[in-house]
Structure to design on (420 residues):
């Protein structure tokens, strides 16, 4: 549990952000109930409608709606996920669920960048537009707060996009999370890389720890890891040579190793095991040749000739319903793109060249449905700390982000021409 709070408790945008951050929605036991209660209360205080959907028991999805004057036009959907990855408090300078603001304005918390900031910024922006500027949207604006994004979204956004409740929203354009920018320009993402979880297993000859023989499970696994490491190095070399961005190559990173015969004090040291296993996080670009990579895994990374087996788990869609890569155009063919760009410019912001996101978001499920979706989290001059220790966001950056969303929501919701 986080230490007691003795920071100021006034009702302000920063304080509301801190309150949301203090709700522990980290896996493996995210407190979705408290988060939904908090967000619902905020939405109601602004005068917005809410609906809680539960496609999976105890995994609520909150839908907030600001009705537009022309409900026949496709709506705008602003998405964020409620859950976070875990945090190890002992490795943080401040408790990850205390949301402490340091004298230089940094708010430390798991989720500060990924992605609780945007969740409350959406609400703050609407609050100002609605209650201070009496702005009335033409298109309906929805906010979705979804569970389980960090574990693949199968019980969250994946179910939502297939539900009649989603169809009824008639969504024309989606904004989802992006990543922080270390420069003075905001980053925007037109595609994600998609994850494959790869597990490779080696079987081999067991034997005495002192013996030298061929074809042990460990030897086979290590040879395979060498091949994978070489592939990883080649991909990384392309990046290091400046020929591609990180997100434009395939990443493959080992995330666990499992082998050995357990003993009460650790592992048996004088036995060579007959099984060994390794897990990899692979991220594919939208253009990756899937068959080619599968062939490489079968023939080079886990060859049956070396007593290896493998399992690929695809975490979500890789192609849309037309069989096309999940990419949202950022050119004149997509009218939403120009409106979005104008809105950021009008707020005094500069946009960097659109990128592929190195990681993965729920936007892929909406792109799969053919809905144009951009990834955007208005954080500039900010180190990229998602999933890292000491994740923080500066108060000034957070507040400026609200202003940017005010402009974006105003522009998108008053844009009448485009259908989809
Ligand atoms: C496994 S789906 C994606 C989860 C998370 N957003 C990531 O990029 O790692
Ligand atoms: Zn995220
Ligand atoms: Zn994340």
């Amino acid at each position: 549990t986080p230490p007691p709070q003795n920071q100021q408790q006034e009702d302000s945008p920063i304080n509301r952000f801190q309150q949301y951050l203090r709700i522990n929605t980290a896996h493996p036991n995210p407190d979705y109930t408290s988060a939904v209660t908090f967000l619902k209360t905020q939405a109601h205080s602004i005068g917005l409608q809410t609906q809680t959907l539960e496609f999976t028991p105890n995994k609520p999805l909150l839908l907030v709606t600001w009705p537009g004057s022309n409900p026949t036009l496709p709506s705008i959907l602003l998405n964020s996920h409620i859950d976070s990855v875990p945090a190890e408090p002992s490795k943080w300078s401040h408790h990850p669920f205390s949301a402490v603001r340091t004298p230089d304005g940094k708010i430390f918390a798991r989720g500060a960048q990924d992605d609780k900031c945007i969740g409350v910024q959406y609400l703050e922006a609407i609050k100002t537009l609605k209650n201070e500027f009496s702005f009335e949207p033409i298109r309906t604006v929805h906010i979705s707060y979804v569970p389980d994004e960090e574990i693949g979204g199968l019980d969250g956004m994946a179910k939502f996009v297939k539900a009649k409740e989603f169809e009824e929203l008639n969504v024309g354009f989606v904004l989802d999370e992006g990543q922080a920018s270390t420069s003075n320009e905001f980053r925007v993402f037109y595609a994600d890389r998609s994850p494959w979880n790869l597990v490779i297993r080696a079987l081999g000859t067991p034997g005495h720890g002192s013996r030298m023989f061929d074809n042990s499970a460990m030897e086979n696994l290590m040879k395979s890891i060498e091949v994978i490491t070489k592939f990883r190095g080649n991909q990384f070399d392309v990046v290091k040579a400046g020929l591609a961005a990180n997100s434009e190559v395939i990443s493959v990173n080992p995330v666990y190793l499992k082998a050995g015969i357990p003993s009460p004090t650790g592992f048996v040291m004088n036995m060579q095991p007959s099984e060994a296993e390794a897990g990899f996080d692979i991220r594919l670009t939208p253009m990756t040749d899937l068959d080619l990579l599968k062939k490489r895994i079968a023939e080079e990374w886990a060859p049956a000739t070396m007593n290896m087996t493998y399992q690929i788990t695809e975490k979500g869609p890789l192609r849309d319903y037309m069989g096309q890569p999940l990419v949202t155009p950022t050119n004149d063919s997509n009218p939403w793109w120009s409106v979005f760009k104008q809105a950021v410019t009008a707020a005094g912001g500069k946009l960097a060249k659109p990128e592929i996101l190195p990681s993965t978001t729920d936007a892929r499920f909406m792109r799969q449905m053919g809905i144009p979706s951009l990834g955007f989290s208005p954080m500039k001059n900010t180190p990229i700390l998602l999933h890292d220790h000491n994740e923080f966001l500066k108060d000034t950056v957070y507040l400026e982000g609200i202003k940017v969303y005010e402009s974006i929501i105003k522009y998108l919701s008053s844009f009448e021409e485009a259908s989809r």
